[in-house]
Structure formats: structure tokens, C-alpha cells
């Protein structure tokens, strides 16, 4: 009967080993690489890892090689369909060409998040993230 219960732990990652995966981190980075190993905390080891950044219909990659990711920083983990990967209507450019656009988008998002946090703090009484009352 226990075999009918789906995996809800890191054991469910066993089928993902040796496959090309997309990992989105809490800080917004998007990593593509081959999942080589994981542990009970969902810490991941990616091989041949690249970080992708996007702007409109363009993307760029920065090579990172072997990458260790702490499990608590993973927001999303998904397998990349190798048959459909090349069908994406995006054009690859050099990383240095997109980096200024990427950095400005990150800064704009930070400003928007700060404004939202300020409004929630002043008008609704929510505490600021990382401030007083944040348990860790």
C-alpha cells in the first residue's frame, strides 16, 4: 500500500538525475545544467551549468560549470525537453550585450518591491522583510 503514495521528499528527484534541468533560484537566477546529484535536503549538484538572462526576444548565457545549490534557495526545478529546446523563438547574443538590461531590470524590480513593502508597512501594518519580527 505504501508504494502507491507518491514521493513528496527529495527522493522524488531520483528520476531527474543525469537529465538537463532548469533551476530557478530565490534571487531570480535561471540555471540550466545536468543534475548529477542531490541529498535529503534537496541540495543539488549541476554539471555543465550556464546562467541565462533574458530581455525581450533575446537571451545570453554565462558559463558556470559545476554548480552546487543549497536546497532552500531553489524555487523551481524542471526538466528541459531536449526535443523542443531548439524550437524556442529566442535569439542568443553575447552576455555583455544583455547584462546592462538585466541589471536595470533587477534594480527596477528592487525599487518596486521596496515601494510595495513601504506601503504595506505604513498602511497595512505588515512588518518589513528582514526587519523586526523576522524570525531568522
UniProtKB/TrEMBL annotation:
Known function: Component of the cytoplasmic LSM1-LSM7 complex which is involved in mRNA degradation.
Task: Give the organism's phylogenetic lineage.
Answer: Eukaryota, Fungi, Dikarya, Basidiomycota, Agaricomycotina
Q: Keywords in UniProt for this one?
A: Cytoplasm, mRNA processing, Ribonucleoprotein, RNA-binding
Example of a GO MF term: mRNA binding
Enumerate the Gene Ontology biological process terms. Answer: deadenylation-dependent decapping of nuclear-transcribed mRNA; mRNA processing
Q: Name one Pfam family in it.
A: LSM
Q: Name one GO cellular component term.
A: P-body
Q: Where does the Sm domain start and stop, copy by copy?
A: 8-83
Q: How does it assemble?
A: Component of the heptameric LSM1-LSM7 complex that forms a seven-membered ring structure with a donut shape.
Give the location in the cell.
Cytoplasm; Cytoplasm, P-body
- The source's superkingdom equals Eukaryota
What family, per the record? Belongs to the snRNP Sm proteins family.
Q: Which Gene3D superfamilies match?
A: 2.30.30.100
Protein's recorded name: U6 snRNA-associated Sm-like protein LSm1
